[in-house]
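Minutes, project huddle
Topic: does the predicted pose make sense with FNR bound?
PN asked that the exact inputs be recorded in the minutes so nobody has to dig through chat later. Recorded below.
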Amino acid sequence: MTSSTHVLAKKSISRRKIIGAAGIGLSTLPLMSTQVFAAVSDNARPQAPYRASTAEQKLDIISLDRLAVKARGAIPKEGYAFVSGGAGAEWTLRENRRAFNDYRIAAKRLVGLSNGDIDIRTSLLGLDMPSPIMVAPMGAHRMVHEKGEVDTARGAGLANILYCSSGASNATLEEIAQATTGPKWFQLYWNNDDRVTRSLLTRAKKAGYSAIVLTADALGPGRPEDFIAMGNPFRPDATFGNHDPEKGGFGDFGDQKTALTVKDIQFTKQFTGLPVIVKGILRPDDADRFIRAGADAIQVSNHGGRQIDGVPAGITALPPIVAAVNNRVPVILDGGVRRGIDIIRAVAMGADAVAIGRPFMYGLGLGGAQGVQSVAEHINNDLKSALLLSGASKLSDLNPDFIEIVGQNEEYSTFDG
Ligand code: FNR
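Predicted holo structure (tokens), as shared on screen:
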């Protein structure tokens, strides 16, 4: 055992002890989402009034890793634990970052490019986008900022990037739609009560969302072990907005349907007439099956390592999925995308766009809407610089010839946020 694996093993043992003491052993975590949500409230400690950030400022960002370190010191510890952690022993969470190193950039030299030649614009499902980045769907933004999703969506609009609204938002989908001036998609958590599902889809279409993301890999909110050990301190004053009866909603968010099938892809498409993106795909045969069922795009994702530990990194799953998709529909990648060079690798290996999660939450916590805008601007600038240094002028110039596959031989040593 190397010293680093020894440290990790020790870490996971001590975490199991904590959970055992709290009476919430991992093996006893219920599979049904209704029960998962029941467990959330049963285990939650009575909460003192929770105040998150009210910051509203542009951020000077050197890197998203450093931003995560700043966020850890600035946002409430409950919010940070909720956002930063992953499922189980967090192997997949770490792997989402490490695995990018399996793909080295074979940069080209003396290709006659300068800054003015660099163009990171792209298009996705009919949207013209200033860059291939989007805000991944994430629930419960009021864990890090008082304005929650309204400010995240406003920040995405300030940067004109695509905002994907989570079905687990604290704000309503209508409040979020109004807050962003940019393009927007709605991510659906299917409810056991069909009336609730239909109502959410109808509302999303009416509010102007241009596509529906069907999350296929989640049975409830991610609850990292550090968060469980704190007693699942979700804010009692921040509910699931889309189900709030005072705001036109109904139904129990926790009553999620777990028995989803490809028929649900077909239903979503027919019912809304909107494109459907299936999110959470890690297998090429799943991608093929879902496209045959009508999926308009595939999102390769392991939910930021928050649902099941032990599955591969998105970037590892990407190449065989790209081969199976064979240009039939666009492919989106998420999980651990933090640098322009990560996006170069993803696009060179066939991704059309990337979704980014946690850094936008940190931007929100540290700077509200302007913080979110700063994160988008930072990653776009980093991508421009990475493209120039790779020897390509635009995203469509990238292809597997820019990548050298080296296999798993390196630990990612930088702090993982
Ligand atoms: C998520 N994610 C997520 N996905 C989804 O489809 N619906 C959801 O409600 C949520 N909620 C959520 C909350 C938080 C706090 C996080 C960090 C993530 C997963 C998300 O869409 C995306 O797959 C990952 O966040 C991408 O990984 P990175 O960029 O965070 O490493």
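Observations noted during the meeting:
- Residues 82-83, 96, 136-139, 166, 168, 187, 215, 218, 222, 279, 301, 303-304, 306, 334-337, 355-358, 361 surround FNR (CB under 6 Å).
- The longest helix spans residues 358-390.
No decisions taken; revisit at the next huddle.
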